[in-house]
User: Fold this.
Amino acid sequence: MLMLRPRASAAVLRAQLLLGAAVAAGFALIGADSLRIAATGQISEASATDWLVVAIVFLTSPALLALGIMAWLRLPAVGIAMLFAQCASPIGYLAIAVLFAPAITGYAPYDATPGTETIVAIGSAAAGAAALLAAVQLIRKRLSGRDRNNE
Assistant:
């Protein structure tokens, strides 16, 4: 296990909290916009004043990648979950729509390539499965630690 000095671990914790807040804010904005589109049936119009929203949403992918790398060092299943969660991030979705879905379906890449949503859904399901695996691993680790402490 990687051991950090107290000052270094506090800095790592602050970085993780900041990155986690960026990821949560980005996905919350994406979700809120999706709910608004579903309720009104109209796609949102981007304006020049939305630069902060766009920046936050596009920071989701790099922040998720950084958190995934940090998590991989402690619990690889969490890192894998974050890698698969990239499918639902803006940059991940763009990569799927432009690279992966056209390669699988044989269509020319564009924003509505057939199969794009299926790949995003499979990635999201894989992220959930990896997160569930990580939770099981953590529970087992905690329970085995308690058993040793009680002896």
About this structure: The chain has a mean pLDDT of 83.
